[in-house]
Amino acid sequence: MAASTNIPLIMRIVSASIPVSTRAGRIIRDILKKGELGIVEKAKNDLQTEADRSAQRCIVASLHKQFPNVAIFGEEQLDPSEKFDPNFLETSSCDEVLTKKCPEFLTDAKDEDVVIWVDPLDGTSEYTQGLLDHVTVLVGIAFKGRAVAGVIYQPYYNYKAGPDSVLGRCIWGIIGVGSYGFSRQKAPKGQNIITTSRAHSDRIVTESVEACKPTSIIRAGGAGHKVLLIIEGKAHAYIFASRGTKKWDTCAPEAVLHALGGKLTDLHGNAMLYSADVQRKNSGGILATVDNHSWYTEKIPEHVKETLPSDPVPDFMKKLEKPLVIPEIKSSSSPVNSPPLESQDSQSEQWFMTKDVKAMFAPNSNSSNSDNGSEISPKKPKPNPES
Asked: Of 54, 84, 87, 285, which sits with the fewest C-beta atoms within 10 Å of its C-beta?
């Protein structure tokens, strides 16, 4: 059952995104089990599978049905003529989220100020190679251009525990509320463990990591997975000196990390921007930490920062009368003991795709660049006669 519209919008979107991401995770597992991956190479070292496509259809259709006036951007460009499976629709909500108090700075969020960024299968290359613990489903929620809430679902969490183990866990966070679904540990003292990309590396990536004096390096797939390594104390920092990630890769992980007191910025220490008109690539690279963020930004070589300038400020953000002020969250050393959310199976209502919903799967008509992913524009509100 959908949450009441009396509940603040951000809380309702997060509440809906948890069962939606869980459903997408089951789709990803089912497709791998069948072995019919339908792999397409979008670009060099950039794969797409049937799991990416089906999971995105599930997430986007489910959230669009519940929040038709909120813009949604997904990584994959999908064929609008393909038939949508009505069993993919998920419209239930997570009661745990709805019991939390919405932070004051999010209580008045309106549809037009919110953007949802979706990576239906982060870590596709690893998925095809059997490195299943690297795979995540990411749903990030931005308000006035800033990441404020996120859901990270791990479809294969616990997959090495044996055939009878329960697979999957859902981690979620809202700035000002907290992060849930995991047990937090501090990273080892006296060490400096850095995680970076396992598949996308060059001289600048390597030089930036080495400049931060790592005691060891974890090369991993998926931005969501690498941020989880930070959150769970398996690494001290995530450094990626490249334009190789995009907004749907970082919005959800940034919000979850920020909600527990960490930071995810570009290599300059500047905030990532997530309004609908922002460029998709994270042009300034990625730096994520729980502690000592400024120490790492100062270690990044200046010539690397010159090569990777921060994102330009989009017009939407320039026009804001009151830019959003994100509250600072103090990092706590105490573990956050919250059990993983179990899958919330529900009967999906029968639903047939209308022309309006078919259009949301079409490639972005404003650009031929596949980097833009797919866009679902909200229904245009009626004009305000006083404006």
From this structure: 87
